[in-house]
Amino acid sequence: MDTKTAKLLDGKAKAEKIQQGLSAVIKEAQPKIGRPPGLAVLMVGDHPASAAYVRGKERACKKIGIASFGRHFPTETTEAELEGVIAALNEDERVDGILIQLPLPNHLDAQHLLYQISPDKDADGLHPINLGRLVRGETGLRSCTPAGVISLLEEYKIPLQGKQAVVVGRSILVGKPLALMLLEADATVTIAHSRSQNLPEIAKNADILVAAVGRPEFITADMVKPGAVVVDVGINRVTDSSGNSRIVGDVRFEEVARVAEFLTPVPGGVGLMTVAMLMQNTVDSYRQHLQN
User: Fold this and answer.
1) pLDDT tens digit string along 4-15?
2) What phi, psi does 142 have (nearest 5°)?
3) Which pTM value belongs to this model?
């Protein structure tokens, strides 16, 4: 009986390593800059998952020495009020990174508010100017989840040059920027999605398969090339018939683990890398003061 199982790409260990490195950078830079780095996470309303994510980000800030300027606003907060807060944070010299926790309540235009953040303080790397810098291969703040995926692949010395990479998912948060980053690393990239014809066939062609489709356990073993590297970006809460809930990814973990060579766990994979890259972006923005 074949008991082969994929090696895990441990996001927790890599995120720890990044945070330790950032902590050392801050200790060295702080006497020269005269203050710690600052991150402002803005949350509107009472979305339970968002509240958990924000707490995780605040814990990470505290651990590595980033000052937190987070604000929590009531659901009924107006767009004009938030614009005023963002404008003040853009001018605040203590703040290096600004992030709007998504999703926002329906009456707020997330895209419009993201555009109000100064591109040099865009800790999430989602401002059109930063996405444009990525397209052009220029330095700039990079979208956190895709940057976390690339960092994790680098940590495990997984070669990207010339490899067939398939990204299942085309969101502006993950799919599109990740495809650009894989191209930058000289991979041959296909973006697939829920309307792609012959999706299993496309996925099975991948040396590196990234699942970022937002559907629980969507990628099955018959969609994976034997020996492929599979990165699961999904975080989905599912409830069984007994009413017990658990977190699963976009990949059917147990069965894909018998086919793939490397696989990210959920939780413990890409999610922790996203937070680490948010810290990285904030510290990169902070270090610009040393160059100016």
Assistant:
1) 799 999 999 999
2) -100, 145
3) 0.94
